[in-house]
Amino acid sequence: MTKKYKCDYMDSGINFERNGIYVCCKTAHKGKGWLLLSDSYENLDWDKIFELKKNWQKQIASGNPPEKCIGCSEIVETDELVEDMSLYYVDVNSFCTCNSKCLYCDCWHFDSFKETSLYPAFLKLFEKKLLKHDKYGYIQFAGGEPALMIDFEKIVDLCIQNGIERYIVNSNGIKYSKGIEKLLINTKTNLCVSLDSGCAETYEKIKNVPCFDKVINNLKKYINTQNKDKSCIWSKYIIIPGVNDNEEELKKWFNLSLNIGIRSIALDIEREWFKNHNRQILPEHENMINIIQIACRENNIKFEFYESLKCFYGIR
Ligand SMILES: C[S@@+](CC[C@H](N)C(=O)[O-])C[C@H]1O[C@@H](n2cnc3c(N)ncnc32)[C@H](O)[C@@H]1O
Ligand code: SF4
Ligand code: SF4
Questions:
Q1: Most buried of 14, 73, 79, 173, CB within 10 angstroms?
Q2: Which atom, in ligand 1's list, is nearest to the CA of 194?
């Protein structure tokens, strides 16, 4: 029997970016991804978009994937092809407005960017029954700051009404958002707030805004209002070599996070540094990570390391 192949993102994924719509956000493989579905949000033709995906799906199935998919680790063998190509894996990166100025991020440099509301696109997808809940699916908000995204709360309401249960929200926590609150109460949401520091001084060195106390207060509010059986709030620390890669700061952050009620911890390494250092972390970083991992085990805290890097660089 001839072998068949599939990619879950080609079957069921979509990535809303600032300059258009793509299939996925994987870029670390040989073909470098970015399969364009539409270069504009004006007059979207969903039939054409799904036709494009269907054709690429067939190419992947035959073992001769589109050039941009070559070398991608998401392509796996399969027995049968998915017929219903409704969307389950939705990445929302279509906005860059932000109230922080993190030294590791370029979002806040694009202050002249004119954001388009995604509400009409979501509405159309639900009307056409092309966006559905799936037990492994998600809607992920990253982009700039979701709490400032145009129509964020309206989109959240619409997705909840249409039965979407799983979300990932990356927020800086500076502005308390009713939309995020609704997700934490009504759905299975992972909210991830990158604090990167255990005190206001280090926070301000990294974020360049005086908002440490505000973020801690908002985190406490989210923790108190969430449905703890369904949702989960993560405190994240991006290790930025030369800035916050010291054990004292990391322990301060860890203790503070636990003191305010956080039960899930994520560590990461600043991406550009990682890329420029042969995708290797230093032994002293490994040592710090081990200390936090052991403390998490002792305190029954969920621990993740590397998750966004894995996603970004396609590490499995
Ligand atoms: C671009 S942000 C947007 C969402 C939101 N404003 C926030 O800060 O969480 C999405 C995620 O990427 C992470 N991130 C941004 N730049 C990074 C970098 N250079 N290295 C590692 N993680 C980074 C952020 O911490 C955040 O968790
Ligand atoms: S094969 Fe890789 S690059 Fe191609 S659609 Fe799937 S995840 Fe994206
Ligand atoms: S808060 Fe998020 S979007 Fe804003 S500058 Fe920082 S990482 Fe970028």
A1: 173
A2: 25
